[in-house]
Amino acid sequence: MRASVFGGRLCRRRWPDDADSFKEVMKRWDRTWGDRLQELVMIGTCAMDRQAITDAVNAGLIKIPRKQDLARGRWKSLPDPFPAWQP
What is the pLDDT, as a whole number, of residue 48? Predict the structure, then answer.
């Protein structure tokens, strides 16, 4: 399976047929979103406060995403816990 294609978008007969690849897909499988996910990578130095960064990012997550909050841009009205970003 190409990295740019979500398994959930393919018909099952086009999925990898080897057990290891299938296992990798299913490890991250979600009943609603399939294998669609977002990953955030922080690049810095060992002096970064990993816990502080994790706590700040987690505070900005939608705790229990509901489809009605995510549909039609309604997510834009949710509170933003982060301060305004300044370049």
Answer: 92
